[in-house]
Amino acid sequence: MNWNMPHKESHYQQQWGLRNRLSRMIRPETGRSVMLACDHGYFMGPTTRLENPRKTIEPLVPYANALAVTRGILRNCVDPNWDTPVILRVSGGSSILREDLSDEELTASMKDAIRLNVSAVALSIFIGTQHEKQTLVNLGRLVDEGEEFGMPVMAITAVGKELEKRDAKYLSLACRIAAEVGAHLVKTYYCEPDFSKVVNGCPVPLVVAGGPKLKTESDVFELVYNAVNEGAVGVDMGRNIWQNDHPVAMIKAIRAIVHEDATVKEAIEVFNQESRKGMVETSIPA
Questions:
Q1: Contact predicate 247/59, CB 8 Å
Q2: What is the CATH number of the domain that holds 154?
Q3: For residue 242, how many C-alpha atoms fall within 13 Å in the half-sphere facing its CB?
Q4: Does 221 map to a domain?
Q5: What is the per-residue pLDDT across 134-170, written as a single tens digit (0 to 9) for each?
Q6: Which of the residues 111, 161, 187, 277 is marked catalytic?
Q7: Tens digit of pLDDT for each residue in 20-58?
Q8: How far apart are CA 194 and CA 210, in angstroms?
Q9: Whole domain around residue 73: which residue ranges?
Q10: Is 213 a catalytic residue?
Q11: What is the pTM of this model?
Q12: From start to end of the chain, where are the E strands?
């Protein structure tokens, strides 16, 4: 019996599945992605304007290339008929009540991710913290399981409450380590200056987080524009979309930058046009 052939076929099929899942989240036509982050509740609880997850997610999900949620929200608040790919958050263990958010373990299994038919799994790594090793071992274990089942793993270079860590030196280190351990995709922060150095030092695709809500729509669009023009494949944003008074207009404007190479000025025009349209639609009597 030829033992090598089944192994090769199985490996090829697993790699096909992994590549297919990635292609669902990162559009092949543009090589970019707009991901919608709605997994904040796993450590923040009922975050402002995410108190009712389904109400927040439903109008936005048609415009997202992927939706990031926990399995509890996926099972209870996401319609199985929606066709948007899902990134399943599988790490946790600390809440905002603790000073140190880095003490995380894996909180969902790869088998459950497969049962839920998600397109990727995601976990946080905390480089430079007391629990650095623990979170990197979590990543290594998850990558091993992901490779077995053809499931992409996204590593999130979390900084906890220490936002001053968002500089090129730190992010380059964190992103490179994530890729070295085996992450297929890395979510990180945009930084100035030298974000291109972060991108160039990471051999896997990067998506940029929005972080806490920025002051103006223009600030968000500038972040998105700069990130993709310096090499990010897209964004994975939450609060800067659904905490806006016009979230649908916001995600449409971000899509224009990411997928249509719109400028910041053009994105503002899209936002203004869509927000006016939304105001007219909501003012129509039932």
A1: yes
A2: 3.20.20.70
A3: 28
A4: no
A5: 999 999 999 999 999 999 999 999 987 777 778 999 9
A6: 187
A7: 999 999 999 999 999 999 999 999 999 999 999 999 999
A8: 18
A9: 4-210
A10: no
A11: 0.92
A12: 33-37, 66-69, 86-89, 91-92, 105-106, 120-125, 153-157, 185-188, 206-209, 234-237
